[in-house]
Write a structure and sequence with these properties.
The chain has 5 helices and 12 strands. The chain has one domain: phage-related protein like fold (Alpha-Beta Complex), CATH 3.90.1690. The strands form 3 sheets. Strands 5-12-9-6-8-7 form a 6-stranded mixed sheet. A 4-stranded mixed sheet has the order 1-10-11-4. Strands 2-3 form a two-stranded antiparallel ribbon. Strand 7 and strand 8 form a beta hairpin. Helices cover about 20% and strands about 30% of the residues. It is of the alpha/beta class.
Protein backbone atom coordinates (compact mmCIF):
# COMPACT_ATOMS: atom_id res chain seq x y z
CA UNK A 1 0.00 0.00 0.00
CA UNK A 2 1.27 3.49 -0.87
CA UNK A 3 2.73 5.43 2.06
CA UNK A 4 0.73 8.54 1.14
CA UNK A 5 -2.66 6.80 0.85
CA UNK A 6 -3.95 8.99 3.70
CA UNK A 7 -3.88 11.97 1.31
CA UNK A 8 -6.81 10.38 -0.48
CA UNK A 9 -8.89 9.78 2.61
CA UNK A 10 -12.40 11.23 2.41
CA UNK A 11 -13.50 13.79 4.99
CA UNK A 12 -17.04 13.68 6.38
CA UNK A 13 -18.58 16.99 7.42
CA UNK A 14 -21.59 17.22 9.68
CA UNK A 15 -24.75 18.29 7.88
CA UNK A 16 -25.76 20.75 10.61
CA UNK A 17 -23.84 23.94 11.40
CA UNK A 18 -23.59 25.18 14.98
CA UNK A 19 -24.50 28.82 15.47
CA UNK A 20 -22.22 30.90 17.67
CA UNK A 21 -23.45 31.27 21.23
CA UNK A 22 -25.59 34.37 21.28
CA UNK A 23 -28.53 35.92 23.09
CA UNK A 24 -31.46 35.22 20.79
CA UNK A 25 -33.94 37.83 22.06
CA UNK A 26 -36.09 39.69 22.35
CA UNK A 27 -36.16 38.49 25.95
CA UNK A 28 -38.69 40.98 27.31
CA UNK A 29 -41.47 40.74 24.78
CA UNK A 30 -44.81 41.58 26.38
CA UNK A 31 -43.39 43.61 29.26
CA UNK A 32 -44.49 46.97 27.81
CA UNK A 33 -47.47 48.61 26.14
CA UNK A 34 -47.62 48.29 22.36
CA UNK A 35 -49.31 50.27 19.62
CA UNK A 36 -49.64 49.44 15.95
CA UNK A 37 -47.81 52.12 13.98
CA UNK A 38 -48.04 50.50 10.54
CA UNK A 39 -48.04 53.21 7.90
CA UNK A 40 -46.68 55.83 10.33
CA UNK A 41 -43.29 57.20 11.33
CA UNK A 42 -44.27 57.59 14.96
CA UNK A 43 -46.99 56.72 17.45
CA UNK A 44 -48.46 58.82 20.27
CA UNK A 45 -49.25 57.33 23.69
CA UNK A 46 -51.81 59.03 25.90
CA UNK A 47 -51.22 59.66 29.60
CA UNK A 48 -53.90 60.82 32.03
CA UNK A 49 -53.00 62.26 35.42
CA UNK A 50 -54.55 61.68 38.83
CA UNK A 51 -57.95 62.95 39.89
CA UNK A 52 -59.00 64.16 43.33
CA UNK A 53 -62.32 63.48 45.03
CA UNK A 54 -64.10 66.45 46.67
CA UNK A 55 -67.26 67.09 48.66
CA UNK A 56 -70.17 69.32 47.68
CA UNK A 57 -72.80 71.17 49.56
CA UNK A 58 -76.49 70.52 49.08
CA UNK A 59 -77.71 72.16 45.85
CA UNK A 60 -74.18 73.32 44.99
CA UNK A 61 -72.17 72.33 41.92
CA UNK A 62 -69.72 69.43 41.87
CA UNK A 63 -66.02 70.23 41.39
CA UNK A 64 -64.53 68.64 38.25
CA UNK A 65 -61.37 66.61 38.76
CA UNK A 66 -59.73 68.04 35.62
CA UNK A 67 -56.95 65.43 35.50
CA UNK A 68 -54.01 66.48 33.39
CA UNK A 69 -53.75 64.99 29.89
CA UNK A 70 -50.36 64.57 28.23
CA UNK A 71 -48.82 62.65 25.36
CA UNK A 72 -45.46 61.09 24.52
CA UNK A 73 -44.26 60.07 21.10
CA UNK A 74 -42.32 56.97 20.09
CA UNK A 75 -40.39 57.59 16.88
CA UNK A 76 -39.88 54.48 14.79
CA UNK A 77 -36.50 53.43 13.43
CA UNK A 78 -35.90 50.77 10.78
CA UNK A 79 -33.46 47.94 11.47
CA UNK A 80 -32.02 45.35 9.10
CA UNK A 81 -29.87 42.24 9.51
CA UNK A 82 -28.88 41.10 5.97
CA UNK A 83 -26.48 38.48 4.67
CA UNK A 84 -25.60 37.39 1.13
CA UNK A 85 -25.06 33.70 0.37
CA UNK A 86 -23.27 32.98 -2.92
CA UNK A 87 -25.26 30.62 -5.15
CA UNK A 88 -22.23 28.52 -6.10
CA UNK A 89 -21.06 28.37 -2.50
CA UNK A 90 -24.33 26.61 -1.75
CA UNK A 91 -23.16 23.74 -3.97
CA UNK A 92 -20.10 23.19 -1.81
CA UNK A 93 -21.67 22.90 1.61
CA UNK A 94 -23.90 20.30 3.23
CA UNK A 95 -25.53 22.28 6.01
CA UNK A 96 -28.53 24.58 5.67
CA UNK A 97 -26.76 27.94 5.35
CA UNK A 98 -29.92 29.85 4.54
CA UNK A 99 -31.70 28.51 7.61
CA UNK A 100 -28.69 29.28 9.81
CA UNK A 101 -28.47 32.85 8.50
CA UNK A 102 -32.19 33.31 9.01
CA UNK A 103 -31.93 32.35 12.69
CA UNK A 104 -28.82 34.51 13.13
CA UNK A 105 -30.52 37.55 11.58
CA UNK A 106 -33.62 37.20 13.73
CA UNK A 107 -31.44 36.92 16.84
CA UNK A 108 -29.57 40.11 15.87
CA UNK A 109 -32.82 42.04 15.59
CA UNK A 110 -34.06 40.59 18.87
CA UNK A 111 -30.95 41.87 20.66
CA UNK A 112 -31.45 45.30 19.10
CA UNK A 113 -35.04 45.30 20.39
CA UNK A 114 -33.88 44.49 23.93
CA UNK A 115 -31.15 47.13 23.73
CA UNK A 116 -33.66 49.87 22.90
CA UNK A 117 -35.94 48.80 25.75
CA UNK A 118 -33.04 48.86 28.22
CA UNK A 119 -31.92 52.28 26.97
CA UNK A 120 -35.42 53.61 27.55
CA UNK A 121 -35.47 52.18 31.09
CA UNK A 122 -32.14 53.83 31.89
CA UNK A 123 -33.46 57.24 30.89
CA UNK A 124 -35.32 57.49 34.22
CA UNK A 125 -32.28 59.20 35.74
CA UNK A 126 -34.24 60.88 38.55
CA UNK A 127 -35.45 57.51 39.88
CA UNK A 128 -32.16 56.03 41.05
CA UNK A 129 -31.82 53.84 44.14
CA UNK A 130 -28.82 54.04 46.47
CA UNK A 131 -25.79 52.52 44.73
CA UNK A 132 -24.50 49.20 46.07
CA UNK A 133 -21.45 46.96 45.81
CA UNK A 134 -21.85 43.45 44.40
CA UNK A 135 -20.35 42.03 47.58
CA UNK A 136 -23.33 43.39 49.54
CA UNK A 137 -25.54 40.85 47.78
CA UNK A 138 -24.68 37.66 49.61
CA UNK A 139 -26.15 35.03 51.89
CA UNK A 140 -24.02 36.35 54.78
CA UNK A 141 -25.54 39.84 54.61
CA UNK A 142 -28.63 39.78 56.80
CA UNK A 143 -29.89 43.06 55.34
CA UNK A 144 -29.45 42.16 51.69
CA UNK A 145 -33.21 41.99 51.09
CA UNK A 146 -33.41 45.62 52.19
CA UNK A 147 -31.38 46.55 49.09
CA UNK A 148 -34.04 45.16 46.78
CA UNK A 149 -37.05 46.09 48.90
CA UNK A 150 -35.79 49.69 48.87
CA UNK A 151 -35.35 49.50 45.08
CA UNK A 152 -38.86 48.14 44.47
CA UNK A 153 -40.33 50.19 47.31
CA UNK A 154 -39.26 53.39 45.58
CA UNK A 155 -41.58 52.47 42.72
CA UNK A 156 -44.45 51.66 45.07
CA UNK A 157 -43.96 54.96 46.92
CA UNK A 158 -45.00 56.71 43.72
CA UNK A 159 -48.36 54.89 43.80
CA UNK A 160 -47.31 52.35 41.16
CA UNK A 161 -49.08 49.02 41.72
CA UNK A 162 -46.72 46.30 42.96
CA UNK A 163 -49.33 43.54 43.09
CA UNK A 164 -50.83 43.55 39.58
CA UNK A 165 -48.26 41.24 37.96
CA UNK A 166 -47.00 43.95 35.60
CA UNK A 167 -43.67 44.82 37.22
CA UNK A 168 -40.42 43.57 35.64
CA UNK A 169 -36.74 43.71 36.57
CA UNK A 170 -33.51 42.95 34.71
CA UNK A 171 -30.10 42.30 36.30
CA UNK A 172 -26.72 41.22 34.98
CA UNK A 173 -25.80 37.55 35.25
CA UNK A 174 -23.14 38.51 37.83
CA UNK A 175 -25.83 40.00 40.07
CA UNK A 176 -28.11 37.03 39.38
CA UNK A 177 -25.42 34.61 40.61
CA UNK A 178 -25.21 36.56 43.87
CA UNK A 179 -28.99 36.71 44.23
CA UNK A 180 -29.13 32.91 43.99
CA UNK A 181 -27.22 32.75 47.28
CA UNK A 182 -29.94 34.72 49.09
CA UNK A 183 -32.56 32.46 50.69
CA UNK A 184 -35.42 34.89 50.15
CA UNK A 185 -34.73 34.89 46.40
CA UNK A 186 -33.75 31.26 45.90
CA UNK A 187 -35.99 29.22 48.20
CA UNK A 188 -39.39 27.95 47.19
CA UNK A 189 -40.93 29.24 50.41
CA UNK A 190 -40.47 32.77 49.07
CA UNK A 191 -40.73 32.48 45.27
CA UNK A 192 -42.79 29.31 44.71
CA UNK A 193 -42.22 25.83 43.35
CA UNK A 194 -38.58 24.93 43.99
CA UNK A 195 -36.84 27.00 41.31
CA UNK A 196 -33.38 25.68 42.23
CA UNK A 197 -34.51 22.10 41.74
CA UNK A 198 -35.52 22.97 38.19
CA UNK A 199 -33.89 25.83 36.34
CA UNK A 200 -32.09 28.36 38.57
CA UNK A 201 -31.57 30.60 35.53
CA UNK A 202 -35.26 31.01 34.74
CA UNK A 203 -37.17 34.14 35.65
CA UNK A 204 -38.97 34.24 38.99
CA UNK A 205 -41.47 36.41 40.83
CA UNK A 206 -40.07 38.15 43.90
CA UNK A 207 -41.15 41.27 45.77
CA UNK A 208 -43.92 41.80 43.26
CA UNK A 209 -41.58 41.90 40.25
CA UNK A 210 -40.69 39.29 37.63
CA UNK A 211 -36.88 39.08 37.70
CA UNK A 212 -34.66 37.92 34.85
CA UNK A 213 -30.96 38.14 34.10
CA UNK A 214 -29.89 39.83 30.89
CA UNK A 215 -26.44 39.92 29.26
CA UNK A 216 -27.20 43.14 27.38
CA UNK A 217 -27.07 45.55 30.31
CA UNK A 218 -24.36 48.10 29.53
CA UNK A 219 -21.36 48.19 31.87
CA UNK A 220 -19.35 51.35 32.53
CA UNK A 221 -16.02 50.53 34.13
CA UNK A 222 -17.10 47.97 36.73
CA UNK A 223 -20.61 49.29 37.30
CA UNK A 224 -23.97 48.74 35.64
CA UNK A 225 -27.60 49.31 36.48
CA UNK A 226 -30.37 47.01 37.55
CA UNK A 227 -33.52 48.27 35.86
CA UNK A 228 -37.15 47.79 36.91
CA UNK A 229 -40.25 49.01 35.12
CA UNK A 230 -44.02 48.72 35.17
CA UNK A 231 -45.63 47.55 31.95
CA UNK A 232 -47.68 50.74 31.60
CA UNK A 233 -44.58 52.92 32.01
CA UNK A 234 -42.99 51.93 28.67
CA UNK A 235 -44.54 52.16 25.20
CA UNK A 236 -43.42 50.49 22.00
CA UNK A 237 -44.65 51.58 18.59
CA UNK A 238 -44.45 48.77 16.04
CA UNK A 239 -44.35 49.54 12.33
CA UNK A 240 -43.38 45.98 11.47
CA UNK A 241 -42.62 43.01 13.69
CA UNK A 242 -39.47 41.01 13.00
CA UNK A 243 -39.79 39.34 9.60
CA UNK A 244 -37.42 37.59 7.20
CA UNK A 245 -37.22 37.65 3.40
CA UNK A 246 -35.03 35.37 1.27
CA UNK A 247 -34.60 36.64 -2.30
CA UNK A 248 -32.27 35.80 -5.17
CA UNK A 249 -30.22 38.79 -6.36
CA UNK A 250 -29.01 38.17 -9.96
CA UNK A 251 -26.37 40.94 -9.93
CA UNK A 252 -24.77 39.30 -6.90
CA UNK A 253 -25.39 35.72 -8.04
CA UNK A 254 -26.39 35.26 -4.40
CA UNK A 255 -29.31 34.74 -2.11
CA UNK A 256 -30.03 37.65 0.21
CA UNK A 257 -31.31 36.66 3.65
CA UNK A 258 -32.68 39.84 5.19
CA UNK A 259 -34.44 40.17 8.54
CA UNK A 260 -36.03 43.54 9.25
CA UNK A 261 -38.17 45.35 11.76
CA UNK A 262 -39.43 48.86 12.48
CA UNK A 263 -40.13 50.00 16.03
CA UNK A 264 -39.49 52.66 18.66
CA UNK A 265 -39.67 52.86 22.46
CA UNK A 266 -40.65 55.76 24.70
CA UNK A 267 -41.19 56.37 28.42
CA UNK A 268 -44.89 56.94 29.05
CA UNK A 269 -44.61 57.59 32.78
CA UNK A 270 -41.24 57.81 34.51
CA UNK A 271 -42.85 57.10 37.90
CA UNK A 272 -43.04 53.45 36.84
CA UNK A 273 -39.28 53.10 36.29
CA UNK A 274 -36.39 52.64 38.73
CA UNK A 275 -32.69 51.88 38.38
CA UNK A 276 -30.05 50.71 40.83
CA UNK A 277 -26.31 50.99 40.19
CA UNK A 278 -24.23 47.95 41.21
CA UNK A 279 -20.42 48.10 41.37
CA UNK A 280 -19.51 44.60 40.20
CA UNK A 281 -15.83 45.16 40.93
CA UNK A 282 -16.25 45.27 44.70
Amino acid sequence: MANDIDDAFAVQYEAEAKLAYQRMGPKFMGTYRTANAEGSASVVFQNIGKGAATTKGRNSDVTPMNPEHSTVTATLADYYAPQYIDKLDMLKIRHDERGAMQRTAVAALGRQDDAKLITTCLEATTNTSTAQNLSAISSTNGTVTAIFSDHIGNIGARDVALDDGMLFSAVSIQVWEKMLTVDQFARAEYVGATPLAGNPWGGRKWMGSMWNYHTGLTISGTSRYIVSWHKDAIGKGIGQDIGVEINYVPSKASWLVNAMSSFGYVTIDGDGQQRLLINEGS
